[in-house]
């Protein structure tokens, strides 16, 4: 072994920390700089005056932040007579004011926030959000009272969108408008006697959750109406929709964690409306992500299990049931249209899906109407059945196609009789969904002759037209989808479809012609109200016709396909579909 002595270099130990005495302050409140006398002048001071003459950064930051608040005199001129006082607004200012204290040399030590402090900050932030919404609406140039505008949006939803998404309890939503007026104006509302700290309780915090949920749902509904309806049915829609959507998402952010931990029907419905608005704006991917969040909440609430509805308030149970089936349909539609994966299926749930369909009888969601709500719920259920049976067909087709892939010489030989029966029976159920439907839901001609509406009920007739357009287009679109999938997997003979490519193209062109007839017979407003989901179904049919036209060698078939494609392109361009612009450009080049 070496006799060299080991040497270790130890780090230098830090000595005791020097204590600095507080710097004396100048008369203006600024700290005295060492080496500079009170009367000396620095280059900075010579240009901008003494530090004592500089404006207080805290006050400057506060003034800057207050510039973003609405003009309270403007609000008062429209009947809003009382607002949060300065102390209330001060508690709601961002933490930037506290950060600015570092500039002045003062470092206040905040006291631990109590539950009441948290509640007050929450209430102040919500109030400022709603006042900012009012200011944004006034900035658009609309002078009508905001509660009048909101009531018109609710009227439009009930009159036109309820058949597609019966997710709103009208009485509760209209009560939220009154609550909104009270929050903005500072008038008395249900929780005003609980604001003082000595009377603060857990119930107060819980009620504040209900308030913010109702505000998020109300503004989401207004955004949905603005994005989905044409200007003829909602004059302010396109201008106010982004404003309402932004406010709704900000309101939801105020209680997001608590809302996720203890959700109710409005938690899912609000997020569903957000996704619809994104979809209508052409942001399909973002819409799918928001839809996924709503689906995960529904799964956590076990809404696929009928036992989860036991013991609930009747209206709450009804809304949860409706929104579950709405999500189920949206999930299947997203998978079929945009090649996304199924996220709502009993195999994913890990257990059987036992939830029942919404009942057409029982408690109603609307206050009054000139049409039968039960008929609209029946139409809603028919739409769910289309997607339920279509997903069954796709599932059994997938099982059969796996068997075909393993036997090239006799592709259909390995398919068991049970697999054949399951596939055929599910296809029959899909094609017969409308057989037992009420007459007014089977064709536009029978809508005009129906007795479901009262005399002069134009809104009720349009309601039924909207639902019939949705049902008929969905019916033929899903048949087209199954036919194409069948041809791709080599399973034509199982469903009685031709194996010859020309005859298969002819069969698909016949289904496309059925859809062309539907969109030609439907009132144009009914097509517009159905929005992007219907536009995308028409787009898929148009893409199929474009594919057939590009490879067809038969002259008669090519002329038929081009004629029908021209009609669909004209309708899509009139619908101003954001998601279909690429198809329109491609097809226009092909047909020219």
Write the layout of secondary structure elements.
Elements: H1 43-48, H2 57-66, H3 72-76, H4 86-92, H5 96-99, H6 101-104, H7 115-139, H8 146-161, H9 170-185, H10 202-228, H11 237-254, H12 256-261, H13 265-280, H14 284-300, H15 314-338, H16 346-349, H17 373-405, H18 417-431, H19 444-448, H20 458-489, H21 501-521, H22 524-551, H23 555-575, H24 581-591
Helix pairs in contact: 4-7, 7-10, 7-11, 8-9, 8-10, 9-10, 10-11, 10-13, 13-14, 13-15, 14-15, 15-17, 17-18, 17-20, 20-21, 20-22, 21-22, 21-23, 22-23, 23-24
Pfam family, one: Fungal_trans
Biased composition (Basic residues): 11-21
Keywords: Nucleus
Describe the protein.
The model is unreliable at 20-101, 187-202 and 454-458 (pLDDT under 50). Helices cover 63% and strands 0% of the residues. Among the domains are: 69-94 and 115-189 and 204-250, no CATH class; 263-359, no CATH class; 436-591, no CATH class. The termini are far apart. It has helices at 43-48, 57-66, 72-76, 86-92, 96-99, 101-104, 115-139, 146-161, 170-185, 202-228, 237-254, 256-261, 265-280, 284-300, 314-338, 346-349, 373-405, 417-431, 444-448, 458-489, 501-521, 524-551, 555-575, 581-591. With 592 residues, it is mostly helical.
